[in-house]
Amino acid sequence: MRKNWWKILAVLLLVHTIVAGFLTDVPRLPILHETIRNQYFHVCMWFAMMILFTVGLIYSIKHLSSQKQSDDIIASEAVNVGILMGILGLLTGSLWAKYTWGAWWTNDVKLNGAAITMLTYFAYLVLRNAITDDQKRGKVSAVYNIFAYVMMLVFIMIYPRMSDSLHPGNGGNPGFGQYDLDNNMRMVFYPAVIGWTLFGVWMMTLRIRIQKIKTNFDI
Q1: Of 38, 70, 120, 182, which residue is 20 to 30 A from 57 by alpha carbon distance?
Q2: CB-based contact 125:43 (threshold 8 Å)
Q3: Comparing C-alpha atoms, which of 154, 156, 153 is closest to residue 165?
Q4: Which residues of 103-126 are buried (b: 16+ CB within 10 A; e: fewer)?
Q5: Backbone dihedral region of 181: left (phi > 0), alpha (psi from -120 to 50 degrees) or beta?
């Protein structure tokens, strides 16, 4: 039980996110209306994605230094789950765009940057599957993962802030927290970030255990 406290916390936080996310009051804003509740899902999933990609970056750097296969496994599984969170973020974001901007996808710099980011990480998966030698795969994947992380920062965090964007906090638009993230939403939003992140880490640890079993590693 002591070892699994964070898993229990993840479940409780996600239950809280789903229940409170749909039932608590939210600001009545033009255009957004009830769709602002998607912030508990779309935005928080992307927070979890970026945290997992950061874990993958750290262990890719460690692998280049240590040459340990265990570091490569952690890096790759962090990226795998990060990609899943990214896909969920894209789907929930597309749904949100449909009901606020009138289209499933718009020519928005951050949306396009997100698509490029996901394609960059999909290429990471293709690259890993194309190399059969374990040591070579680990080295090449680690170098490419560093490149992919930098691309993510450029296309999601940096470039949208320098260009016109429909997204809050980008292109001169105020961020959500500056004008409409009230106390009710904060009580759901911050636990949701933690909950989705812990859920992603939980999935990552399960996948790491599976890979270690397959490669006869000590768990």
Answers
A1: 38
A2: no
A3: 156
A4: eeeeebbbbbbbebbbebbeebee
A5: beta
- Helices 69-100 and 109-130: angle between axes, nearest 10 degrees: 150
Q: Rounded to whole angstroms, how far apart are CA atoms 86 and 11?
A: 20
- In degrees rounded to 5, what are phi and psi of residue 95? -65, -40
Helix (H, G, I), strand (E, B) or coil at 145: helix
pLDDT of residue 21: 84
Mean pLDDT of the chain: 86
Predicted TM-score (pTM) of the model is: 0.88
User: For residues 156 and 90, what is the distance between their CA atoms, to the nearest angstrom?
Assistant: 13
Tokens of 119: 């394609």
User: Residue 167 is which amino acid?
Assistant: H
Does the pLDDT at position 148 exceed 90? yes
Going by C-alpha positions, the residue among 186, 185, 192 that lies closest to residue 25 is 185
Summarize pLDDT for 157-177 with one digit per residue, the tens: 887 777 666 555 444 444 555
Which three-class secondary structure string do you get for 162-198? HCCCCCCCCCCCCCHHHHCCCHHHHHHHHHHHHHHHH
Tokens 């880490």 locate to: 201
- 204 token code pair: 């990552």
Q: What is the dihedral of CA 58, 61, 66, 67, to 10 degrees?
A: 110
